[in-house]
TrEMBL record:
Key word S-adenosyl-L-methionine present: no
Residue ranges annotated for the PKD domain, each copy included: 555-622
Matches recorded under Gene3D superfamilies: 2.10.70.80, 3.30.60.270, Immunoglobulins
Topology with respect to the bilayer: Single-pass type I membrane protein
Membrane-crossing segments per the record: 834-852
Similarity field: Belongs to the VPS10-related sortilin family. SORCS subfamily.
Transferase among keywords: no
Annotated InterPro entries: Ig-like_fold, PKD_dom, PKD_dom_sf, Sortilin_C, Sortilin_N, VPS10, VPS10-sortilin
Protein name per Swiss-Prot or TrEMBL: Sortilin related VPS10 domain containing receptor 3
Length: 928
């Protein structure tokens, strides 16, 4: 395989059948070995700075014997091991490399998820940022030809649709342009997206979207910021009125590109004929593949006309000055149709004496060579036939100035002649003029910038468009992230929630209001310190260098001192976080488990981070299942779940603070400590290799608590990807909604989200850490807050907005008792609350059995929950009338023990229904 450099003809890359890659700078006279294990069809080259061969860089995939692949770059003539660059220290997906225009894309597997990286203009790779919970199963690069990236993403909850995302200029931050774009399976089995970029007009796209089991066609003039349905033609081919009213009825188009490059496909446009769109489609409530026809638009999709009742292939002649149509190749034909007035009238010509199955048409470009070549066959057994058509004789002359007219590009929905921030005027040949467009024909007559309006701006990354058109932060978006890495004395751009549509040319207007504001970096103490290894692993070979990465979310990084303790008696210190950007390397001389600690400190505060490193063959995943809230001075069960669950030798290491313990007892902690953390490491036999795993569950320590089981409206389940990050973010939003209906302090509420579907959670109400009053008083206060929140839940007052138009209501499922073992974030079905429920049912059954057995000896007490005054007096008045049934309200039952004792004493004296031998035993009876 040979690869020539486009602008430096003497440079050649050659790969042999044995996977060896060579380079030559003298057109093959001498060859230099680059690498011996290069993946077929996975090597590229590009220039850097200028065209000299010494500045040509090579990008290649190196394949190892175990099938893993690494990504490598180097200079063409200096590709020795010492001069090679490995942008990704781990392995990459072999088929994920995409190189288009200024962008290079790569997929790297990390923690079981696909992670995508992009390089803009061959610069350093950066991880792409999709919305936090898009979680793509599949991602395709649609196009990169308009200074940004169009990506089709199949989300975790999609099967036959994709979401369309648009990036910023660098291809890093992606925002949603359209949901649920339909896909069509091609002849070769490939999934093709029903999305079409209209040629000749930037920012204009047509897409088929699935909504409520219907597929409809939408069009946009500003790169997906706004979409609208297509207006159906007013009349049919016979001139009869078509009654089709938006939004119940519209025009729908088939957007499949032809897999045969010599056929036009179901939709066709040409950059030399801006505004003209020819497509197959139908009129109705949704897209259909029955009763279809051919439609054309001469004004960029604002209005449409029907031109044929049957499907045709349509080609553009003479820069769009003429249109040629031929029936689909499944039907033999000897006629073609030509239109010189943009499809209003068609003239039929015969091009073959015998009907021909047309397999394709070659249209030769240029003004001096007006030739079309048809190729096809007369029957399925005949040989191919070639028919050449010279249509130059159709034109009598070249077009003069009076043969042209102007056409203003506009968006009918917005009611103004501004598209992508410009007023554009095009020149067109007047319909019906049989003249040939000249070589110097110019399509655009003028382009003038417009005043910026709201539709010239889309929502920035982390923001979502609401029903009123404004952009608001998504529930998962932390606005403080925008100043990450910002140091005192520097500036950063604080987003307003909007970003200008790429390549939009508008000026002034709302531009200042919507453009990101330049602000000074705030002064903050260190916060969000993260410590990790460069390769993301928690294992290290003895004697080899381990590269540690230190990252700070917030704080003045320029004035923060970083201390790193490697856990083996050595430590380093840096006075500036930027010095650690390339990583801190350290080699261990003794095997075992080490505790690596990072400390960030400045004049305003400090933050710390810890990881545990081990030389071992690890398991794939480990989870610690622990209760969220535990009672002080009571033992706690913590369960370790190891995945995969195949039988093997596993060594467990437990940490409580800095001490190694076999079991965890929160009673060992000091009274001031309100939270303890457990860490688990696993070491396996040499045959089982993988990554070592750690788990850091948090336990809230308290004397007593109250808890409520929460459930949600079913629409939350549709957006539940069942991952810990999502549960944490949603739990935070639920907590915020609960704080709005109660005056309870933030630190005394804990929302624990459970894995799985249906979505469920448990709300814990904790007493204040520094209790000023007695325990009884604190319990009463906790009870009051519980009733307040319970009342709000029962009245559907607790709700939150998951995304624009999706509101979720929080309900109360069951009130659990205080001083019970709370639920565990592993399986909501095996919870202590569920066990209490089961025990309650058992005790209730036992009580019913006892009552049934001794029903002749013990008087019945019917409890009524209706607390109205009239009924209450009536019920109380019925006590002591000598019948076998006493009635009393629930509220009265809790406070009328003396009344019951008197009644039972009275019955004992009369010998009516009293099972006690003496008055002395009456309290025991009442307690039962």
């Amino acid at each position: 395989a040979l690869l020539f450099y486009p602008s430096y003809s003497s440079f050649i890359l050659k790969k042999s059948l044995s996977k060896k890659l060579y380079s030559s700078v003298d057109f093959g006279r001498k060859w230099q070995l680059i690498h011996e294990h290069v993946t077929p069809n996975r090597f590229y080259c590009w220039k850097q700075n200028n065209f000299e061969h010494r500045n040509i860089r090579i990008l290649l995939y190196i394949e190892y014997s175990d099938g893993n692949v690494q990504y490598v770059t180097c200079r063409a003539q200096m590709c020795t091991e010492a001069n090679r660059n490995y942008p990704f220290p781990g392995y990459i997906e072999i088929s994920s490399l995409v190189i288009q225009d200024d962008y290079i894309f790569i997929q790297v597997p990390m923690s079981g998820r696909a992670t995508y990286y992009v390089s803009y203009k061959r610069e350093t790779f950066t991880q792409t940022k999709l919305p936090k919970y898009s979680l793509p199963k599949d991602l395709h690069i649609v196009s990169t030809n308009e200074k940004q990236v169009f990506a089709a993403v199949q989300e975790w909850n999609q099967n036959d649709t994709y979401n369309l995302y648009l990036s910023d200029t660098r291809g890093i931050y992606f925002t949603l342009a359209m949901e649920n774009v339909k896909t069509t399976r091609g002849i070769g089995g490939n999934q093709m997206l029903d999305l079409y970029e209209v040629a000749g007009i930037k920012g204009m796209l047509i897409a088929n979207k699935r909504h409520d089991n219907q597929v409809k066609t939408y069009i946009t003039y500003n790169k997906g910021r706004d979409w609208r349905l297509l207006q159906a033609p007013e009349r049919d081919l016979d001139g009869n009125d078509i009654h089709c009213m938006l939004p119940f009825c519209s025009l729908h188009l088939q957007l499949q590109m032809s897999e045969n490059p010599y056929l036009s496909g179901s939709i066709s446009t040409k950059s030399s004929a801006p505004g003209i769109i020819v497509a197959t489609g139908n009129i109705g409530a949704e897209l259909s593949y029955n009763n279809v026809g051919m439609f054309i638009s001469s004004d960029a999709g604002n209005s449409w006309r029907k031109i044929f009742e049957e499907e045709h292939n349509v080609w553009f002649l003479d820069k769009g000055g003429a249109l040629v149509a031929v029936k689909q190749p499944s039907v033999p034909t000897r006629h073609l149709w030509i239109s010189f007035d943009e499809g209003r009238e068609w003239t039929q010509y015969s091009f073959s004496p015998v009907p021909l199955f047309v397999d394709g048409v070659l249209v030769e470009a240029g003004t001096e060579n007006q030739i079309m070549t048809f190729f096809g066959h007369f029957s399925h057994r005949s040989e191919w036939q070639l028919i050449k058509i010279d249509y130059k004789s159709i034109y009598s002359r070249k077009c003069a100035e009076e043969d042209y007219q102007t056409w203003h590009l506009h968006n009918q929905q917005q009611g103004e002649p501004c598209v992508m921030g410009q007023k554009q005027i095009f020149m067109k040949r007047r319909p019906g003029n049989y003249c040939m467009l000249g070589r110097d024909y110019s399509r655009i007559l003028s382009a003038e910038s417009c005043i910026c309006r709201a539709h010239d701006f889309e929502c920035d990354y982390g923001y979502e468009r609401t029903g009123d058109g404004t952009c608001r932060p998504a529930f998962w978006f932390n606005r403080s992230m925008i100043s990450r890495g910002c140091s005192q004395g520097q500036n950063y751009f604080n987003s307003t929630g909007y970003r200008k549509v790429v390549l939009n040319n508008c000026t002034k207007g709302v531009k200042e209001m919507f453009t990101a504001v330049k602000q000074q970096c705030p002064i903050r103490p260190p916060k969000g310190l993260l410590l990790s290894t460069k390769d993301g692993k928690l294992t290290a070979n003895l004697g080899s260098n381990v590269t540690f990465l230190v990252h700070l979310d917030e704080g003045d990084s320029m004035r923060t001192n970083i201390q790193l303790d490697f856990g083996d008696g050595t430590a380093v210190s840096y006075s500036n976080l930027s010095w650690t950007e390339e990583g801190i390397k350290h080699a261990y001389k003794a095997a075992g488990i080490v505790r690596v600690t990072a400390l960030a400190e400045n004049m305003l505060g400090h933050d710390a981070a810890t990881l545990y490193l081990h030389v071992t063959c690890p398991v794939e995943q480990v989870q610690l299942l622990a209760p969220f809230v535990v009672i002080r001075n009571k033992e706690v069960n913590v369960t370790a779940v190891v995945l995969p669950s195949h039988p093997r030798t596993v060594t467990y290491f437990w940490w409580l603070g800095n001490n190694t313990e076999v079991s965890l007892k929160c009673s060992d902690l000091l009274q001031q400590i309100s939270c303890c953390k457990a860490v688990t490491l696993f070491s396996l036999s040499k045959r089982a290799c993988g990554q070592i795993c750690q788990s850091f569950p948090s336990l809230s320590l308290t004397e007593f608590f109250k808890s409520l089981l929460l459930s949600f409206s079913p629409n939350l389940d549709e957006f539940n990807p069942d991952i810990p990050e999502w549960r944490q973010d949603v739990g935070r939003v639920i907590k915020k909604a609960l704080l709005q209906v109660s005056d309870f302090p933030d630190e005394q509420l804990l929302v624990a989200m459970f894995p799985g579907v249906p979505t469920a959670a448990e709300l814990f109400l904790l007493p204040h850490k520094n209790q000023s009053g007695s325990k009884k008083k604190s319990e009463a206060e906790l009870e009051q807050v519980t009733l307040t929140i319970l009342n709000a839940l029962n009245q559907n007052l607790v709700e939150f907005e998951l995304k624009p138009g999706v509101r979720v209501i929080v309900y109360n499922t069951q009130l659990t008792l205080d001083e019970t073992a709370p639920l565990v974030d592993s399986n909501p079905r095996h919870s202590s609350s569920a066990m209490l429920m089961l025990l309650s049912v058992v005790f209730l059954g036992l009580a019913v059995f006892l009552i049934y057995k001794f029903k002749r000896k013990i008087p019945w007490i019917n409890i009524y929950t209706d607390g109205s005054q009239e009924k209450e007096q009536e019920m109380i008045g019925s006590v002591g009338q000598g019948d076998r049934t006493s009635k009393i309200t629930l509220s009265e039952f809790s406070s009328s023990k003396e009344l019951m004792e008197k009644e039972l004493e009275s019955r004992a004296k009369r010998g009516v229904g009293n099972s006690c031998e003496s008055t002395r035993e009456i309290p025991n009876c009442t307690s039962v």
